[in-house]
């Protein structure tokens, strides 16, 4: 397996690269437009317009602030996967601040001192986490450490390495960044911080967040860069709330096959958008009105109620 240390310059050369900061991976790491699993999933699940609205390549993009869940997820990945230099990317927010007389008071977002502290961390490019979030991550780590698959090394390997390759049909650069690149096999483990690790909760997450598309794109990366299929792609799911239960769920190959088709459609939409500058919404490039109808569930509910009501009125 050939792994190259990233030079710091945007590139187009296919390969597996280490040392690409996460912020650069999502912005100007490549010398021409490229797309990852998250962008393809947005195009598929929402529309090209939704992707473009927040795309790095859109000069009029809307940069939305990170939610608490997003910050927790990124910090948890950094700490739970053992990635180095946590304090180069994150700052732990103080629990108190000094008032005008030097006395310590509980942290307050309305305090000028607290506002200045946050502004300074933002200027340094650091993401702020709270001590409560760090303590939560520690409890999640303890729960993960008890799972047999984690103990056996399901999340071990080269951490946060970046894959880059060119799609054979569209010529678009594709990128992927698995949590851990296995060293001696191609059994991939991917950490997911989630609210619900029940069977139904994980299945909803796979469909809702398109995790099968993420797995399929990783499989495509292995084929393009290693000349081999991945052996398996397993979600290691840990609850973000107590008791931080852990489940391991492997994506079925048939679901990845389905995702390959979804990726192909989304990738063609991306290539067309880059080529033409047109990024249609959910209706596509329609020129006339469309019919709208109630859902099959609503139709059945109405018909059941009508049947009962009509029977009652006929008997009256």
Kindly list the characteristics that best describe this protein.
316 residues, alpha/beta, Lambda Exonuclease, Chain A, 3-stranded mixed β-sheet, 14 strands, 44% helix, globular
Describe the structure.
- With 316 residues, this protein is α/β, with parallel strands linked by helices.
- It has one domain: Lambda Exonuclease, Chain A (Alpha-Beta Complex).
- The chain is built from 12 helices and 14 strands.
- Strands 1-2-9-10-3 form a 5-stranded mixed β-sheet. A 3-stranded mixed β-sheet has the order 12-13-14.
- A hairpin with a 6-residue loop joins strand 9 and strand 10.
- Helix 2 crosses helix 11, helix 4 crosses helix 7 and helix 10 crosses helix 11.
- It is globular and about 80 Å long.
- The N and C termini lie far apart (80 Å).
- The mean pLDDT is 90.
CATH fold category name: Lambda Exonuclease, Chain A
The topology string of helices and strands comes to EEHEHHHHEEEHEHHEEEEEHHEEHH
Give a count of the beta strands, DSSP E runs of length 2 or more.
14
Instruction: Report mean pLDDT, rounded to a whole number.
Output: 90
Q: Biggest β-sheet: count, sense, barrel?
A: 5 strands, mixed
C-alpha geometry = globular
- The low-pLDDT segments are none
Rounded to an integer, what's the Rg over CA atoms? Answer: 24 Å
CATH class: Alpha Beta
Task: Please identify the structural class as seen in this structure.
Answer: alpha/beta
The CATH architecture: Alpha-Beta Complex
Our count of helices gives 12
What is the count of structural domains? 1
If strands are numbered along the chain, what order do they take across the biggest sheet? 1-2-9-10-3
Query: Separation of termini?
Result: 80 Å
Helix content: 40-55%
Amount of beta strand: 15-25%
């Amino acid at each position: 397996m050939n792994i190259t240390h990233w030079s710091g310059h945007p590139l187009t050369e296919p390969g597996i690269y280490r040392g690409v900061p996460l912020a650069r991976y999502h912005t100007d790491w490549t010398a021409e437009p490229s797309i990852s699993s998250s962008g393809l999933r947005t195009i598929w699940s929402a529309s090209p317009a939704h992707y473009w609205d927040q795309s790095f390549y859109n000069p009029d993009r809307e940069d939305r602030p990170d939610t608490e869940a997003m910050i927790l997820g990124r910090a948890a990945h950094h700490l739970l996967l053992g990635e180095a230099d946590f304090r180069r990317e994150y700052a732990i927010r103080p629990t108190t601040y000094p008032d005008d007389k030097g006395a310590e008071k509980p942290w307050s977002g309305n305090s000028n001192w607290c506002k200045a502290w946050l502004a300074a961390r933002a200027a340094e490019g650091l993401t702020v986490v709270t001590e409560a979030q760090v303590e939560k991550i520690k409890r999640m780590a303890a729960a993960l450490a008890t799972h047999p698959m984690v103990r056996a090394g399901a999340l071990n390997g080269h951490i946060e390495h970046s894959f880059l390759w060119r799609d054979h049909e569209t010529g678009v650069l594709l990128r992927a960044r698995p949590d851990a690149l296995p060293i001696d096999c191609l059994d991939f483990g991917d950490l997911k911080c989630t609210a619900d690790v029940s069977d139904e909760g994980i299945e909803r997450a796979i469909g809702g967040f398109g995790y099968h598309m993420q797995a399929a794109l990783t499989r495509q990366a292995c084929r393009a860069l290693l000349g081999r299929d991945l052996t398996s792609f397993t979600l290691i799911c840990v609850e973000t709330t107590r008791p931080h239960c852990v489940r391991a769920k492997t994506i079925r190959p048939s679901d990845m096959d389905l995702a390959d088709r979804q990726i192909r459609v989304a990738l063609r939409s991306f290539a067309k958008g880059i080529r033409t500058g047109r990024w249609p919404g959910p209706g596509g490039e329609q020129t006339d009105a469309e019919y709208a109808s109630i859902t099959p569930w609503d139709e059945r509910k109405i018909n059941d109620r009508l049947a009962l009501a009509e029977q009652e009125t006929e008997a009256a």
